[in-house]
Amino acid sequence: MEAVDPKKGTAHCVCKHCNTVTRHPNHDAHKATSVLKKHLDFCLKYQRAKRKECQEYLETLPDFLLNFGDGEVRPTRGVMTSDKLCEQILHIICMGNLSFSQAENPELIGLLRHAYPNVQPPNRRSIASKLTDNANLERENLKEELRNLNSKISLALDGWTTHGNLGFLGTNPILGIYK
Predict the structure, then answer these.
(1) Helices (H), the chain
(2) Which of 95, 88, 45 is closest to 70 using CA atoms?
(3) What is the pLDDT of residue 69?
(4) Which residues have a Cβ under 8 Å from the Cβ of 93 and sit 6 or more positions away?
(5) Is it the case that residue 13 has pLDDT exceeding 60?
(6) Percentage of the chain surpassing pLDDT 70?
(7) How far apart, in whole angstroms, are the C-alpha atoms of residue 44 and residue 50?
(8) Are 167 and 157 contacting, i.e. CB atoms less than 8 angstroms apart?
(9) 148-175, pLDDT tens digit by residue?
């Protein structure tokens, strides 16, 4: 947060967590933010808030990244079904940033057949289909959650291309209560 000293007319920054006052980055020609960074590295209240924010983020991850559609949290318990196995392989592929074709890796298929002889291992198409189903379910859940919000949503969009003409679109939704 920025503040101006009314007596001197100089700009300062105030930590919104512990109210420590530091020099504003524009106080000289270098415009260095190292003073602010050093403060935040050692501000205990900021570190606590950052940990809490991270924990809240983990709690809001989509269900399909944290558990199975039936609400069972990993690792799976009970009898393995084709649907549960497909969901588990989807988790592995997503967490490892792997190609869907890894579901058809002969070594993986051999391991799955040995571990679960009564269950048909998934293929890349069934994994992609499961991801599509989960994404559609989460999309509907998000729409419902947004309908129930008592606030406004701001979307910041940014588009750019690389030198190789690859196009990218970035979004940054900002949820907040505006009154």
Answers:
(1) 34-42, 44-59, 63-66, 82-96, 106-115, 124-147
(2) 88
(3) 47
(4) 99, 100, 102, 103, 127
(5) yes
(6) 76
(7) 10
(8) no
(9) 877 777 767 777 888 777 877 776 665 5
Stretch 17-43: mean pLDDT: 79
12 or 111, which is more confident? 111
For residues 135 and 141, give the distance between their C-alpha atoms in angstroms, rounded to a whole number: 10
Please check whether residue 70 is in contact with residue 42, taking contact to mean a CB–CB distance below 8 angstroms: no
Give the Cα separation of 2 and 21 in Å (integer): 9
Give the H or E element holding residue 161: strand 152-161
**14: Cα separation from own chain's centroid:** 29
**For the chain, what are the domain ranges?**
2-53, 63-149
User: For residue 86, what is the DSSP state?
Assistant: H
The neighbouring-strand residues paired with 169 are: 159
- The CA distance from 124 to 108, in Å, is 12
Give φ, ψ of 77 to 5 degrees. -125, 160
Is 62 in a helix, a strand, or coil?
coil
Distance CA 132, CA 134 (A): 5
